[in-house]
From TrEMBL:
PANTHER family: TRANSCRIPTION FACTOR MYB8-RELATED-RELATED, TRANSCRIPTION REPRESSOR MYB5-LIKE. GO terms for cellular component: nucleus. It comes from the Eukaryota. Keywords: DNA-binding, Nucleus, Transcription, Transcription regulation. This is Uncharacterized protein. It comes from Rubroshorea leprosula. Its main location: nucleus. Residues 123-178 are annotated as: Disordered. InterPro entries: Homeodomain-like_sf, Myb_dom, Myb_TF_plants, SANT/Myb.
DNA sequence: AATGGTGTCAACCGCTGTCGA
DNA sequence: ATCGACAGCGGTTGACACCAT
């Protein structure tokens, strides 16, 4: 289709955000919620385009964002998800609590792709690199490895150790066969969280979902009509205030959203989570991961 | 101390998909 | 069926920080 850039208007600010702009944006969203990005800047008193506001909020100002200090487990999860999903950063980020697609993308490009290369793996195909290519790449990366890790270590000093990586409810997915008004799309995405707790209403954009932990059941059954029975996710909250709640969410191929509350005081959630981590770590379960990935892409 | 090379990441750009008029 | 508005995605850029020389 193509149309003029949204920031082409004369007088609009570009580049880094000032603290004052951040404050204006945060205050406006706290009072009015997310969305309506086009009209938001004017109403909030910002000389920015809506797109810029949305990006700033999504990638930086959202209260549930966890920045930096990506753990080894998260590394592993990102690599595995990338091997399944490719450069679908939004989908990958949707499975890591508090991580944004931009952060995952940057982290991939600056760290993980190099890490894979140094391990002899092609970061695009996830297949083994040939020996000559590998040697050449190692030569180059060896020179830079020190600086990267050292700087990363310094940055990490002041930060708190993150939680284990969690598997997350997908962000809203465009589905041709699934048609709802814009507002309802968000509601559907939040159905599961809304059912379990009302404390996630940080904004209209479903912020609460970033604290949701999903663990797939291991005994899925695919019906003849393509529906998946038992392809559910045990869902709990990463938020310490909500560790007493979790629920089952059926994530069928037609984006059905169902929910039931389950008790959690017996630690079954933790067990299932560990079970899922095990599943992630074993290559022979690649087939499970593949079907998991397919379920995200429908 | 100065300088050039490199890494990082916030922000921008261009595009696509969806929806409603 | 078409078009414009809007939201969102992935690729790219550029400013800045850091490091080696």
């Amino acid at each position: 289709m193509g149309r003029a850039p949204c920031c082409s208007k004369v007088g609009l600010h570009k580049g880094p955000w000032t603290p004052r702009e951040d404050t204006l944006l945060v205050k406006y969203i706290q009072n009015h919620g997310e969305g309506h990005w086009r009209s938001l800047p004017k109403k909030a008193g910002l000389l920015r385009c809506g797109k810029s506001c949305r990006l700033r909020w999504m990638n930086y100002l959202r209260p549930d964002i966890k920045r930096g200090n990506i753990s080894a487990d998260e590394d592993d999860l990102i690599i595995r998800l990338h091997s399944l999903l490719g450069n679908r950063w939004s989908l990958i980020a949707g499975r890591l609590p508090g991580r944004t697609d931009n952060e995952i993308k940057n982290y991939w490009n600056t760290h993980l792709s190099k890490k894979l290369i140094s391990e002899g793996t092609d970061p695009i195909t996830h297949k083994k690199l040939s020996q000559p290519v590998l040697q050449e790449v190692k030569k180059r990366s060896g020179r830079n490895a020190k600086t990267s890790s050292k700087r990363q270590a310094n940055k990490n000093k002041a930060k708190v150790e993150p939680d284990k990586p969690k598997i997350h409810l997908p962000k809203p997915v465009r589905a041709k066969s699934f048609s709802l008004p814009r507002d309802h799309r968000l509601q559907c995405n939040n159905l599961s969280t809304a059912a379990a707790s009302t404390s996630h209403s940080k904004g209209a954009g479903g912020l609460g979902t970033d604290n949701v932990v999903l663990v797939p059941w291991s005994d899925d059954v695919v019906r003849d009509d393509g529906h998946v029975e038992g392809t559910g996710f045990l869902e709990g909250y990463n938020d310490h205030d909500h560790h007493d709640h979790h629920q089952l969410v059926i994530n069928g191929s037609d984006l059905e959203c169902h929910s039931n509350l389950l008790p959690t005081s017996d630690g079954s959630l933790e067990k299932l989570y560990e079970e899922y981590l095990q599943l992630l770590r074993t290559n022979e379960d690649q087939v499970h991961l593949d079907s998991f990935a397919e379920s995200l892409l429908i």
